[in-house]
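A note from the maintainers: we've had questions about how concatenated examples are separated. There is no special marker in the raw files; a new sequence line simply starts the next protein. For clarity in this README we add a label.
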Amino acid sequence: MIDLNERVFNNFGSQEKLNDYLELTSYKHNLNLDNLRFNFNQISQVENRKYSFNYEEFKYTIYRLDFCDKEKNEFYLFSFLLPVHSSFNHKLIASTKTNKILVLPFFSNALYYEEFNILICSKTPDDWNFIDNFLYDLYYFDLYGRFIKEEKGILNSIRIPNIAMVNNKIIPIVFNSSLYEAVEIYSYFLIKIFKYNTDGDLYGLIDNNGILYSQDFYHKIIVNKTIDKAILQKETNTYILDIKSRTINSLPYNYLLKHNDNFIKVMSNEKKYGIIDFYGNEIIKPIFNYIDFNFTEDRFKICHTPYEWIKNEQLEDEFKKIEEYIPNAYGLKGHYVEGKLLNSKWGIINSDLDTIIPFIYKWIEEYDENTYLVNEDGNIYKYTSMDLEALEDRDKEIAIHSQIMVVGGKWYKIDKQGENKTRFSVEKGEIQYTTEHLKRLEKLPYDFYKFTDKKAFKI
């Protein structure tokens, strides 16, 4: 009786079988997508990660592994989970949305390049003694399972594939990894690159031919792929780039700061803040001491008093007392108070400069989609600490960053129309939700609110 290892090898282990498969599925023999020479095999889910498929009149059981497409969870690797002593480590690539097998299990690994519509598969060498500089055989497939080409390389080192499949045509991609690094891929024809400079990091945008859109490098680039616009900053000058026409025009601002999908926060040399959109239109003139985004697209949080975090000798004892109560995850050291915001007056406005929440509060946070939290008479501190969430999730890079702490004062809820002000309080130790799940911190001896992105705690 033939065991599983032998059957897998007979069907997928020989170079002859692989050559036949590549010939059958080759792009040049399957130019007409409506008349492919090969049929798609199907997978069937048995339970959870367990699936099956039929090939050569034999039914195989396979198990879903990490997906090639981590965002959409569509393309997955599947394994036979052969015994450890087996020399065959065959992986199958299939779409769980259509239950179609894109690539049969002739290969040991694969990566999916979404912006390029390409799957690259690697094959473990038959004889490690003859492997050329530890380079693997790499095989390019499109999302119809058509074999495009073969080359030598190391799969995990490929950030930018050298081809894309677009509208049933192979598009060459020119990318010189010795000159720069890809930091963000917006599409096969729009790639943000980085190069080191002694005066600071510089960024550019290149097309699939390796040509710069802007003919220059910048200290900051913010791209809106939906409307083919980019906002650029070099030193203290800002510009808008129309990606389609490759035209650049100056903007009357000095610095680009935070942004969301629709707006960018800008700052003048006088440290006044405003808001623009990705067309370069001025939404709010840079006249405010500080401005920030809200969950609601057309609302902005404004500081009407000087936005200065004060740190001096008179505040040292106060800071030491505060530092004693800053949560210190896993016993790690390094947190410290950066400064105190004195006499702050915060409010909420819309893009028409209408006042939604008057500028009378020491601090404002969005509690949920319908409610603001406002503080009267509290003390506002900024401190640096370890990223608690990153420590909980070891897959994340641990970051040290600034956080805001509001101590004391009275808290109120106000609705998004700026009305129905009610007192807000909870028992110590309870967690107040904003929009995401929250983690409980150690209890502190007095009312202490800690705000992070979209999270609010009361301890």
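[label: protein 2]
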Amino acid sequence: MLDSLPDTLNESQLDALRAELGKNKEGIKVQLRQWQHRKFITYSNQTELYIKTEEYATSCLPARA
């Protein structure tokens, strides 16, 4: 799901994507907390945006044989 979002995102963008996928609005905060705990995103208090991390970018690279 995070792959479908831009590198910087806000809650309303996640809400819109979750709605497209038929998921409820109540799960947004839980989803964001999970991604933060997994170090996939960080939150900027200054911009009020979530930013995908380098750890997330490297974890999404295809495995090399």
